[in-house]
Amino acid sequence: MTDKTGTPDPWTWARGIAALRQPQLSRRGFLNLAAAGGAATLIAPRLLRAQPAEPTGQVIAGISQEPTVFNPLMLHIEVDEGVYFNIYNPLWGVDPDGNFTPQLAAEIPSVENGGLSEDGLNWTIRLRDGVVWHDGTPFTADDVKFSLELTVDENFRSARRAGHDLLTDITVVSPTEITWRMTQPYAPYMALLASTFIVPKHIVEAAADPNDSELNTHPIGTGPFKWVNRVAGDHIELAANPDYFGEGPYLETLVFKYIPDMTVLYTQFQTGDIDYIGLQGITPDHFAEAEQLPDRVVMPIPQPFIENIGFNMGKPQFQDLAVRQALYLAMDKAAIIDAIYYGLPKPAESYIPEGNWAYNPDLPQHEYNPERAKQILDEAGWVPGPDGIREKDGVRLAFTNSTTAGNHVREQAQQLLQQTWREIGAEMEINNLPPAVMWGDYWMMSEFDSAMVGIAFMVGPDPDTTDYFHSQSIAAQAGAGQNTVQYANPEVDALLEAGTVSVDREERKQIYYQQQEIIRHDLPYLPIFQYAMVEGTKAGFVGYTPNINVRINSWNASEWYWES
Fold it and tell me: Considering the entire predicted model, what is its pTM?
């Protein structure tokens, strides 16, 4: 299956890769296999070496953004989760098929095993016995209780309170059992817990300020790897945890190497200085060359991320709907996707990725129409000034747009937008920043004007987007969440709340369809495309498995190893 450019459809490709779990299979080999009928026709698959009995070897994972937040319950971005998945554990995780898999919990709670009441209000979590923190302290239900309560502590910079704030009567029954009651049903909570990493009570509780605990500089978890060191601006080194309760780890050392310049990142993949090229991956302009590299496996992988222009609705120039509508009409989306991204990603109109059960396929389709954009601005009273830049009520239609410095593909898209928006009387200045600055308070506390940003809005496989669109999720207004564009719509708030209470999928689907229609109308974000990120590994690298239900593909590094 190909798209209109002749590029193999990355959604079909990734499903095949995940199913086969054959990292050494070449891209063309896979496509030939798929054309012949799939994995069943592979008569003589090459056998892989069994996992090593003891951790051995090293993987250097190259990433374009720098992890900087190491308490997983604090506000953070997806690159930080690459570290979390390997240092910490949630109660359960989620696999590429959307199935929940036990981690710190001994089993997934259900009505059948007594873990959930019929009405979904009473939860009983049975925990693994014998799990220890990296410093040797036993992990117990007290750590779970502490972590859940920390998420709703008003003095803590929590990544998310919504959902957690429904818990009451949290009771430690024993070191391996905890119960709680929810004040109302909350459909996304199972998915939310799959991305809620548990932190050590004895470490955070010892700090005078939970926002400034030892975890900030020396994270201690229960995960497959232990913290070794961090060289700010360069890399993070982790070492195998010999006491890990789960599968693996099979690597002795895991290094996250931070390379902000996307061209340099790709060059280091070419030369073999890095073994896996992850977050932001290989830019589309290097894809054709990359797939010809010897001893490399390169693949386009679908992601839950939507590339957007996010507007800070706290800024006066973006509070007029006419401005947001006009800027969308003056966005040459087709040119961005086809000329700059080589046709790899799919155009998006929603913040929910295509393929999710709540995705609304009937949203209005984008039209590139600069003349209509000018007309809308004229009708709304935005009058061109002497320099051609429009003004209204003393406010110039001028703003900065920011993203990660060193991402040359995004910079090209920014330059195209700068040109087409200038033609309708909007002045955009490019102000790109190092990742640690861009995605720190500048983004989290809504200090930007507008941003080019890729976001996975959902809670894993669940389409709840309270964290990004509810008015109580605005961190800059003392909320807890990532509504950094400061979007507030009472109707959307009500729909978000209704969508989490209902446990009927069809009812929830209609709620989220309506919510997508409203947000598509309001345009706090201008959706551009759904990601198809190109990632790659060296040949002989075993265990890499893309997972659209998480935000970074180092989620299962405990299963990685080298084929001999």
Answer: 0.82
